[in-house]
Amino acid sequence: LLLVNERFILPYFGTKEKEEKEADTIDESNPVIIAGFGHFGSTLGRFLRASGIRATILDNDSDRVDLLRKMGFKVFYGDATRVDILKSAGAGEARILIAAIDSPEINFDLVEKTKKIFPNLTVMVRAKSRLDAYELLDMGINDVYRESLDTSLRLGVDVLTKLGFRKYSAVRASQNFIKYDEAALRELARHRHDQSDYIFTTREQIQIQEQMLNKDREVNPNINDHAWDSDSFEEKSDNGNN
Amino acid sequence: LLLVNERFILPYFGTKEKEEKEADTIDESNPVIIAGFGHFGSTLGRFLRASGIRATILDNDSDRVDLLRKMGFKVFYGDATRVDILKSAGAGEARILIAAIDSPEINFDLVEKTKKIFPNLTVMVRAKSRLDAYELLDMGINDVYRESLDTSLRLGVDVLTKLGFRKYSAVRASQNFIKYDEAALRELARHRHDQSDYIFTTREQIQIQEQMLNKDREVNPNINDHAWDSDSFEEKSDNGNN
Q1: Measured between beta carbons, which residues in chain A are less than 8 angstroms from residue B142?
Q2: Cα→Cα distances A217→A149, A152, B207, Å
Q3: Where, residue-wise, is CATH 3.40.50.720 in chain A?
Q4: Averages of pLDDT over each 10 residues, chain B, 242 residues
Q5: Looking at this predicted complex, what is its ipTM?
Q6: With respect to CATH, is domain A17-147 assigned 3.40.50.720?
Q7: Which residues of A touch B184 (CB under 8 A)?
Q8: Count of beta carbons in the 10 Å neighbourhood of residue A230
Q9: Interface mutation vs chain A, best among B37, B40, B47, most A CBs within 10 Å
């Protein structure tokens, strides 16, 4: 029984202790607050730190907070949707709050509260999906980042270069794709509540995107500079790593 | 009861019909196969199509397949981890297979089977997290894409520009960050089975990354060209959108 107690009661004391530690550092005030320090938030946090920008980090997963502290990160344990915790993290003085919590519901809750209580903060938000992005646009958020958008396009750029496109042209195409897709997202957000209207508008937007990228290729002939030929691929793949 | 039957039996017939439709198109052979057409795969698929590259798409969610077809995508309904389906999708002739299935377990299963049965295919893989990326590196996959890496850094670039960095310098720093982080990932993969060793090496790698980015800033003085000043932020935020 003692063992069981140690296992199940210690984490509770751990949590209490963390809350007290948190109160110690109210005097710290940074230009950036990051709420949520999972894969998304921690990459961002490392990048900002490496660029010389200090950020106050909030995370509600006590195991992760422990591990991150051992790795040298300064992380506050706490629920970022609690206004008192946001205040002590410096939300009244900071310039930017990044909402990067794993759960979309909690992240949305944070965004709503922040907009209401700290209207001077610029809120930049991680979105899990296109549908979440629509909701955030409706909430009046301009800085919405769909979490897998850029990496899927980097993979696409690498596919194009493996197939013979020039790297420069492929990267340029992916940048234009993001630009058109962000515009389409704003257009589609207004049509999404009627399924047949949404499907029609999606088809239309996809065609517009393709036409615009085709036009980019014509304007910038470098992008046609690839030696794409399906026969040669089959040969290459026959001579592969057997 | 009839209503219940219609509800629960019709989707089954729907599925049967899809499998038959699938068999029709065995003759189609594209240089690229995309397995998994969620947020990651569909963005990639739209980008490739807009770039003039045909891809064979496999997805195992019949509702999603229906919706995507209505939107004008050519999608095969089927379990990509089944070797017969992979064969009929042209895995024997294609050049690149992209494993972008939502479930990491199923995605890993696909990667293992593809490497074994279609060794000529270049396999490019979506990873959910850093831990999944370690597993994939262990499996001998070189083209591993952590799904939220690039978007979190684009957000980071936008934070830096809001704080006064020049866009060019911030983008350059993010590109270098990815380069160093990919190298660190390969180093850390070897240390991850011993927790204290892993924590030590992580701290070390983070320090190395920061030193290298600092060095980049010294070599390329443009990156110091920002008017970062914490007092001016507070002023700006006082004059914000109240």
Answers
A1: none
A2: 22, 21, 42
A3: 17-147
A4: 33 39 54 94 92 91 83 82 91 96 96 96 96 94 96 98 95 94 90 83 81 76 44 38 35
A5: 0.79
A6: yes
A7: none
A8: 13
A9: B47
